[in-house]
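Sequence in, structure out. Go.
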Amino acid sequence: MITKLGNYFSEGFKKFMPNSFVFALILTLIATLAAILWVEASFIETVESWYKGFWILLEFGMQVTLILITGYSIALSSVANKGINFIARYIRTPKQVYVFVIIIGFLFSLISWGWLVITAVLGRELAMRVKGLNYYYLIACVYFSGGLWVCGLSSSIPLLLNTENNFLLEQQVLTTTLPTSLTLGSILNLSIIAMYFVMGPLLFWLLAPKKVIDLPGLLHKKSGAEPSIKSEAKDSSLEMPALSDKLNNSWILQYVVAAMGLVYIVYYFSTKGIDLNLNVMIFIFIILGLFLHKTPIRYGIAMQRASANISGILFQYPFYAAIMGIMLYTGLGERLADMMASVATVDSYPFFAFLSGGVVNFAIPSAGGEFAVIGPSILTAVKEIGAGLDPGQVNVMVAKASLSVAYGESLTNLLQPFFLLIVLPIMGKGIKVQARDVMGYLIIPFVVIFIILALLVTYIPIL
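Output:
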């Protein structure tokens, strides 16, 4: 029954879910109309806000692109290939793959959301080795597994609250920073982590479709198999001895530079602790790739292959950023947050913060960017609700409201194809796959997790 229901939603999404770029264009028009009709911004003001927004995620888009390329290049190394072959010995059935990918994806995402790239690589490689999979469903499993990042070390909103001189302190919305022990280390956050680890694998085990869509069968037919990186590097050498070839194939040159990077990585973590961010992750991936591919020519070939399918990020991220610009610069995001916060009470504010995070995420699919828009309004409302309480109790309310926004933002990614653009360049390489082929499998998990999260944020305490 539950499998048939999952298949029903999947087929429905194929009919009605447009390409992710079309989705961005539709959201652009909706945000434009809302700004003009509800906030009463002029058309020129709205268009100007749209234009300003185009450029606010350029750094983030470049970071995501590099995360994809460097992470995928690591997976193309012979060492990674041997490791995946070892894992495949013990995971032989489709359901075992689905569950394993979700669990390992949860563990990776608790370290950093950028490690979704590694989960995607692992999922693709297992799909090449295990027969009988539904590959589109496996992509959904990988994408779902990235949702737990909001509870982990790279969760941007809790990290922001613990940052000195953050914009909430500068705007006097908050009077002090909030330690991560009050957010990431809270009873609520730990309960949600436990819930995901139980419900995630269980849901996708029950929903697993019987229809087989093997990755090898989806791959475009080619005249011949792609040569190994090692053999392609060898074929690129001249027939006569040449200094250029010696430099291209110099492991000493590459390892010296890689050793310099390793020294900095050790220095960084020894002085800053476990402070993971996108720049550090990209640097780690680059240095690890230098070690694994041994020579400059091999690493160059790996990076070229890894960057063959990133067009979606390069041209779609600016359009989503432009929608964010409309929400930010016309006051539309703040108006939406004010509306939801105005009906909240001391008992219901976590739910309305959760709902606000989920709704606004469709227009601003970035936790940090979204919180910059709606965070001040929501936290100001929470402080008003808690007026007269002890400052410590108010801080607890603020922490719970902030976490609730983060959980809502992360969950509605299951219905928003923005971050699927991180997965598809890896898992969709060489095949024809669109968001509509994947998103339908996420409807039932979204509904179930939404209900559970709504109950948890409302009734589970922080301390």
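Check: The chain has one domain: 2-213+308-459. Residues 2-213+308-459 form one domain.
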